[in-house]
Design goal:
Layout (H helix, E strand, L loop, with lengths): L2 H23 L7 E2 L7 E2 L4 E2 L5 E2 L13 E4 L5 E4 L4 E2 L5 E2 L13 E6 L2 E5 L4 E2 L5 E2 L13 E4 L5 E4 L25 H10 L6 E6 H4 L3 H8 L5 E7 L2 E7 L8 E3 L5 E6 L7 E4 L8 E3 L6 E2 L5 E2 L10 E2 L17 H6 L5 E2 L3 E7 L2
């Protein structure tokens, strides 16, 4: 036997004897199994490696995190992946689309437009790239006919209409809809319109809060304009009168069979009523530059000059204009019906005239 043959026999002996020795001497760790006919000593259980299975395999060694995610080993021998932006999942395996994050607020509908881009289609009343901003009413220009829009703190809006127009959005040609006294009471406007004889629209000629309470101002703005409607508010109470005659000229009574007084809100909660001329027709209205609008010979309704600071206005209702059932001329309840008391302070006066 030559040297080469001896060497081969030695190697074969070592390769076959080492696993037996490994098994006998407990060289394989962590439940590793000795190998026969292999250059390795042990076949390692899952999670271990090395010559004798003594080295624990780190879960991050196999790079489980995808799409650039960063792997971190935990205390229990597991791992977590920290994903790059726009990826998610245990292994960062899933790409996140922009709309997956629900960027659209207030019920807006999201559409992916490619990459990291998206588009929100907002519900009515909202705006912005994410529909987070509320559309203010005046932004949609609700006021017609050059009305001026004002946003209100409660989320609503108010239109200030130019003379000759009224209604919520200034779409009515009859300026009664723009009356400050009738504001918020479309039922009163409709009732008054049903009582008025003409079909033409009304236009403001005088408003005491704007023009002042001087009687001469009322006459300078409203005299010789034909039939008029006068509205009066005294605190909580609302009343007024219509005449088919015109104000102006020398101080005098003027006859009418078509004039009437009316009440919308009164002391005794009588429903809105119309009080026509029923006697003393020659005293339907009294025009005098030193008097405000004055109806009846009693006077049934008298507005004193600068009535906001003078306690001179009064209602002697029933002399010329017919009071409702249960109320008679001279009665204290009749005198107090319109304004709450016989004498009163007007807090607002409006006069409207008919225009073509």
């Amino acid at each position: 036997m030559n040297v080469f043959e001896v060497t081969v026999l030695v190697v074969v002996f070592i390769l076959t004897a080492v696993p037996i020795l490994a098994a006998q001497n407990g060289v394989c760790k962590n439940n590793g199994k000795p190998l026969v006919g292999n250059y390795r000593k042990c076949k390692c259980a899952r999670g271990y490696e090395g010559y004798n299975c003594a080295q624990k395999v780190s879960p991050c060694e196999v790079r489980p995190c995808r799409n650039g995610g960063k792997c971190s080993e935990t205390f229990g021998g597991t791992f977590i992946c920290k994903c790059l932006k726009n990826f998610e999942g245990i292994l960062c395996e899933r790409k996140v689309l922009p709309c997956d994050r629900k960027p659209c607020k207030n019920g807006g509908r999201c559409t992916n437009t490619g990459g990291t881009c998206f588009k929100c289609t907002c519900r009515a009343g909202f705006k912005g790239t994410d529909c987070s901003k509320k559309v203010l009413p005046c932004e949609v220009s609700p006021c017609q006919n050059n009305g001026v829009c004002t946003n209100l703190s409660n989320g609503g809006f108010k239109c200030t209409c130019r003379d000759g127009f009224g209604g919520l959005v200034c779409d009515k040609k009859d300026a009664l809809h723009a009356s400050l006294i009738l504001d918020g009471h479309p039922d009163w406007v409709a009732k008054l319109q049903s009582w008025l004889p003409a079909k033409r629209g009304l236009q403001l000629c005088y408003r005491a809060s704007r023009h002042g309470f001087a009687s001469s101002t009322f006459h300078s703005l409203c005299d010789h304009r034909g039939p008029t409607v006068t509205l009066v508010r005294s605190g909580f109470y609302v009343f007024g009168g219509f005449t088919d005659q015109q104000w102006g000229g020398s101080p005098r009574y003027i006859r009418s069979t078509n004039s009437f007084l009316f009440s919308f809100r009164n002391k005794y909660n009588v429903k809105p009523f119309k009080a026509p001329v029923y006697r003393n027709h020659n005293n339907a209205i009294y025009t005098n530059n030193g008097y405000g609008p004055t109806f009846g010979g009693g006077h049934d309704l008298y507005i004193v000059n600068n009535g906001n600071v003078k306690t001179g206005s009064y209602t002697n209702f029933g002399h010329t204009y017919k009071p409702p059932s249960g109320y008679g001329y001279g009665g204290s309840n009749t005198k107090a019906l319109f304004a709450g008391n016989y004498r009163f302070h007007p807090s607002e006066i409006e006069v409207f005239y008919y225009h073509q």
